[in-house]
Write a structure and sequence with these properties.
By secondary structure, the protein is of the alpha/beta class. A 4-stranded parallel β-sheet has the order 2-1-3-4, with helices on both faces. The protein has a 4-stranded parallel β-sheet with strand order 6-5-7-8, sandwiched between helices. The protein has 14 helices and 8 strands.
C-alpha cells in the first residue's frame, strides 16, 4: 500500500496532531505515505464558491501530480475528499472542461488522466487494511471506554457522489472503534452537522450546532467523541471554551479525539507521538488507560 499523501491545508496549518498520528499509525500498518511534492490547496471551500473552474483546476493539478508518480491519493479530510471526487466526476463527464484544464496543466508539463483512485482515510482503514488487521495490532485495548462516532457530513453526503461511508446508515467509524476494544455508542444526533463550515460566516450558529452535538453525547454518559475530519475536530475540540461562554455552561465538554490518535494509543504509542498534547478538549482523564 503506497499512496500520495494529501493532508490538506487545515491539517498542515492547524491540526498537527492529526498528521502526527496518521504518520505514526500508518507506518505500523504497512501503508507508505509519499509526500506529494508541489501540491496545493484542493480548492474547497473557497474556490468552489468564487471560481468553480479554478477549483476544478486545483484538484486536477494535484491529481496529475500523483498520477505522474503512479500513485493513488490518500486524503484525510472529508472536504478534500469530496473536492477530488466531485471534480473527478465533472472531468469524466465534460470533455470541454477537461481539455481546458489540461491545456493549463501543460504549462507545467502535467496532464490529468483520471486513472488513479482517491482514497479517504476511513476507506483505507476499514476497507483496505481491514478490521482484523487493525485488531491484531492492539496491545492496549480500550475495553473500558464508551465512545461515540462523529463521521462528519461529507463522509456520507451527498449520496449522488461516491462517499467513503454509507449514506443511510454510516457505520464504518463505529466498526473501527469497536476494533480497538471500545464500545461505540449510537445516538440520534450522530448524523447532525457540526457547524464548522459556517463558522466563518455565522460563528454563533456554528457554535450552537457543535454544542448541541457535544451536549447530546455527554448527556448519554459517553467518554469521548471520535472523528476523522479536521474541520469537525477544529470546532468540536478547539471551540469548547467559546461554546461554554455562549451557552453559559461552566462544565467542560466531552474529550474529542482523532481516531488515529486512539488507534496509536491502543498500539502502545506515546501520547506526544500522536499529538494528544495538542488537543484542546479535556482528554487527560482518558489517557490513563
Amino acid at each position: 500500500m503506497r499512496y500520495a499523501f494529501f493532508p490538506g491545508c487545515l491539517v498542515q496549518t492547524e491540526q498537527y496532531g492529526y498528521e502526527l498520528s496518521v504518520r505514526e499509525v500508518m507506518s505500523r500498518l504497512g501503508a507508505e505515505l509519499v509526500d506529494l511534492e508541489g501540491a496545493s490547496c484542493c480548492g474547497y471551500p473557497s474556490y468552489s464558491i468564487t471560481s468553480p473552474l479554478m477549483w476544478t483546476y486545483l484538484t486536477a493539478r494535484n491529481t496529475a501530480l500523483a498520477e505522474r508518480q503512479g500513485l493513488d491519493i490518500l486524503t484525510i479530510c472529508n472536504n478534500c475528499n469530496l473536492s477530488f471526487c466531485e471534480n473527478r466526476e465533472k472531468l469524466e463527464k465534460d470533455g470541454v472542461i477537461r481539455d481546458t484544464i489540461n491545456q493549463a496543466l501543460s504549462q507545467e508539463g502535467l496532464e490529468y488522466r483520471g486513472d488513479g483512485k482517491v482514497v479517504h482515510m476511513l476507506e483505507l482503514l476499514h476497507d483496505e487494511i481491514g478490521l482484523e488487521e487493525i485488531a491484531g495490532k492492539i496491545v492496549k485495548p480500550l475495553n473500558s471506554l464508551r465512545l461515540a462516532a462523529h463521521p462528519g457530513c461529507h463522509s456520507f453526503r451527498p449520496s449522488k457522489i461516491k462517499r467513503p461511508d454509507y449514506a443511510e446508515v454510516p457505520g464504518k467509524l463505529d466498526e473501527l472503534i469497536r476494533a480497538l476494544g471500545a464500545e461505540s455508542h449510537d445516538y440520534p444526533e450522530k448524523l447532525n452537522c457540526c457547524g464548522s463550515l459556517i463558522s466563518g460566516a455565522v460563528k454563533e450558529a456554528a457554535l450552537k450546532l457543535a454544542s448541541s452535538k457535544l451536549r447530546a453525547v455527554k448527556e448519554r454518559g459517553v467518554d469521548g467523541l471520535v472523528t476523522l475530519c479536521p474541520y469537525c475536530f477544529k470546532i468540536l475540540d478547539g471551540e469548547q471554551a467559546g461554546m461554554r461562554e455562549l451557552m453559559r455552561d461552566e462544565n467542560p465538554g466531552p474529550p474529542v479525539f482523532y481516531y488515529t490518535q486512539l488507534l496509536g494509543l491502543s498500539m502502545g504509542l506515546a501520547t506526544e507521538k500522536l499529538g494528544l498534547n495538542l488537543n484542546l478538549s479535556p482528554v487527560d482523564g482518558l489517557l490513563q488507560i
